[in-house]
Amino acid sequence: MSDALGEIVDQLAEALREDPVLVDPVFGNGRTDEVHEALGDVVDGLGFPAYVVMVPRPPGLSANDPDRELATLLHEELGGDGVYAVMTDPVGYGETLAGFGAVPDPSQRFVSRLELYPDGGSDVDLSAAGVLARELELVAALDAGEDVTREEVDAYAEQAVWRNPPEWDLDYEVPTAGAYAVFMTMAFVAVAGCAWLVLRNLARWRETAPEKTLQPGLATGPAPTAVEGPAQVRARAEAELDDLAQQLAATAGTAQPDDVRVLVDGSYDTARAVLERTGSDAKDLDDLVGALVLTRVAGRALTARRRRTTPYRPCFFDPRHGEGVRERTVPVGDRELTVPACGTCGQTGSQAHGQAHAQAPRPMLLPGGLLGRERPWYELDTVWARTGYGAFVDDLWDHVATELRSAR
């Protein structure tokens, strides 16, 4: 075992000593806390020791059966009896349940599942967490001598916490100036579902994409090579917010459509609230960038009532890059999603000096994940990931304001 893999196993084992359920946000279905709590309830009710490990695959594991190897390494580190439910592939699923010591034999579930689903399809509509929850409880039921029906197994997909998000129309079009309506009744699950599909598949895309380009900095035109840190982003957001306040004061009393007024005022007030509650450390970068995006959304909307223009949408890969002046498609399952991208991130191979391949944009990285490593912002379970910094919703401010109220 390599030193790097050994260090990761040590960290995972230490985390499991504190909590037998580990769910990285990329497996969280857009609501990691709820999934974690539900899996914890499953483990508590099994009647035998069990551990759930849902983390991106650590480097250095065997190619043949990496999940079983990880389960074995964790058992060697922790000792004792236990069933280890391990999943390290956020796209292909493929769960492993490995038993060590005086615990039920997890392999007995295969016979029952084959009898219930002779033609396959047992995982249809289930999320990754739903698969593990069902398999653990199936092992417990069979060990207790209980009969399990297909209806009982199918019932897992009827529970929101275990269900895959529904299929989505993932075509993205930059709205026109007339498409500023604020959709106050948009269901949260729709936002979470779309965001989860994106982040789940972008994780795999980053692993297989060609060499990445240099990460450009914060700009609305051609992107420089420097990247602004949290303090610089805060300074820029505060300066642009002050400029916006002067514009609002200058246009006070001027008639404007209700939807524009709601969007401008809501985005401005929410940006102020985010800055007031946010520090200037690396962990605050996503909120600081969000405040900047909200400010620019308000500024563009204020301009839109005077002349025809499109809403402000930041570069999806790193909103610090500025406006998404181009579009780029990324794989989402068996289809593609088109997202706004800056001039650099939006370049394909044919656009980038005749190169043979499209360059993979380098996303904004934030501290996160179970091991504390930096992760792309869209792989974390935040309001920014669920909304795509406005790529998936027209009323970004409303989602952020709701998040702020719930955090009080």
List keywords for this structure.
alpha/beta; elongated; 42% helix; four-stranded mixed β-sheet; 10% strand; 8 strands; 408 residues; two-stranded antiparallel sheet
What does this structure look like?
- The structure is a single chain.
- Helices cover 42% and strands 10% of the residues.
- With 408 residues, it is α/β, with parallel strands linked by helices.
- A four-stranded mixed sheet has the order 1-2-3-4, with helices on both faces. It has a two-stranded antiparallel ribbon with strand order 5-6. Strands 7-8 form a two-stranded antiparallel sheet.
- A hairpin with an 8-residue loop joins strand 3 and strand 4 (96-100).
Task: List the topology elements.
Layout lengths: L2 H16 L2 E3 L8 H13 L5 E5 L11 H13 L3 E6 L8 E5 L7 H9 L11 H16 L6 H5 L33 H21 L21 H21 L7 H20 L7 H20 L21 E7 L2 E7 L23 E3 L6 E3 L6 H5 L8 H11 L2
Parallel strand pairs: 1-2, 2-3
Antiparallel strand pairs: 3-4, 5-6, 7-8
